[in-house]
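Notes to self after the Tuesday call (sharing in case useful).
The group wants a holo model before anyone commits to mutagenesis around the pocket. I volunteered. Ligand is adenosine-5'-diphosphate. Logging inputs and output together so the record is complete.
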Amino acid sequence: MPKHDLILLAMDASPTLDLMERALHASDYELATTHDHAGLDRIVQQSIPALMIIGEHLGGEDGFSISMDVLERFPTMPIILYSEKTGSDAAAKVIRAGVSGFLHPPLRINDIVEEVQRNLSRASKLGDWLRREVKRTTASLEQKAKISEAERGKLEAIISNIQDGVIVLDESHHILLANKIVQEIFNLNGAPIVGGYLKDIIPNADLSALIDRARNGALKYHEINFDDGRVFNAQYTPLPRIGSAVTMQDISYLKEIDRLKNDFIHTVSHDLRSPLTSILGYMELIGRSGPLNDSQQEFLGRLQASVQHMTSLVNDLLDLGRLESGFDTRRETVDLCNVMEYSLNVFDSQIKSKSLQVITEFSPNIKSLRANPIRIRQMIDNLVGNAIKYTPPNGRILLNIVMQENQIVLRVTDSGPGIPADEQTRIFDKFFRASNRPRDVEGSGLGLAIVKSIVESHQGRVWVESKVGVGSTFVVLLPAHD
Ligand code: ADP
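Result:
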């Protein structure tokens, strides 16, 4: 039998209280008695009783609401309410108060002791159950924490051992994670970078451009160029509920191979130009050196067309070589809308012969460019020329120029065949021609490579948005000149 449990008796002085004191004392319980609410609070502060018996009246206050009050603070405290009243009204009040036991007259000593014992044993079972539950939940949480710690360890090991640079950012572009390779790429000398703001920790213009433009979906890849010649391909991946990740692969060796290939093409093109010029010259002389019959005339015409095609190919290749070697440094103030108007004039007869509808939409506030006017004209001729070339008769071409912050945005939209989604990333590669191009449309696959080189040599970006059967939009972003 529990001998030393403290029982708090809180009720007005009465013969019933005396009876309770005697009964519980005789059963060896420790007792504390109070006749008011303040006394109850004081005792509770000193030592928490194992059980409380609260009278219906306590120093002029309602014992029911005091019980509710106590249960607010000690939800598992066993409380027996003593009420003079019996019947359903009193029982309803007791239930509402949420107490665990109820005593009412007529009272015998046994009734009191049994009710106290019953409530104490119930409270102890409840306590045991609670302790078990807390232990079980804690163990399961510990287990989960161990697992997630292990998972995190694994993830960190994977990220730090892969040979690509990896940076994980939160939504506000603070670094959550970065591997060793990132330190090496940006020569950070082991400085702590986790937690820092990316642009402060790694002030690299190419990386910042990727982050800024990828956020609004304009860019997913960007090359990061270093002064020592290294080039990295950086990719941006949004991570839902985390932020984003930037991965970087060293593509310097690919760039070197590309450079060697370009040098080779440049040399070959250069060496081909002189013989081609002399072939063209001699072909002209053939016509002058004596009368030709009709077949000879026709064959000569075909030869001339082919040699001219080869010459323009060689010229395009030489152009590309010059652009890629970065020798194009001529910069003048250029008005893009004017260049567009001139270009349209030249294409006028082709536009009319195909009955194309050409719409121009130029915002009035277009700033000028610092650019090489010949290259800008070449870029526009290629884009507009392609739109005209690939759009079927009676089609529609929209030329739109607007300002977006300090960038000039040119959009060339057509109602042509479109470009298959899986080929759009290769469309700017040299010699690449889309699989769905109309077979009768001639071309070398160099025009868009030249466009890309020109745009990039002016610190701009170009990409295509296209849907097969609907049309294509080529978008060019060029920094405006203040
Ligand atoms: P070319 O036109 O000489 O083939 P380009 O480099 O200008 O070379 O274009 C590459 C390829 O891109 C084309 O062969 C064609 O398949 C596709 N292309 C270019 N512009 C368009 C366009 N406006 N509509 C549909 N396809 C296009």
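Two things stood out.
The two ends are 93 Å apart (CA to CA).
Residues 133 and 139 are 10 Å apart (CA to CA).
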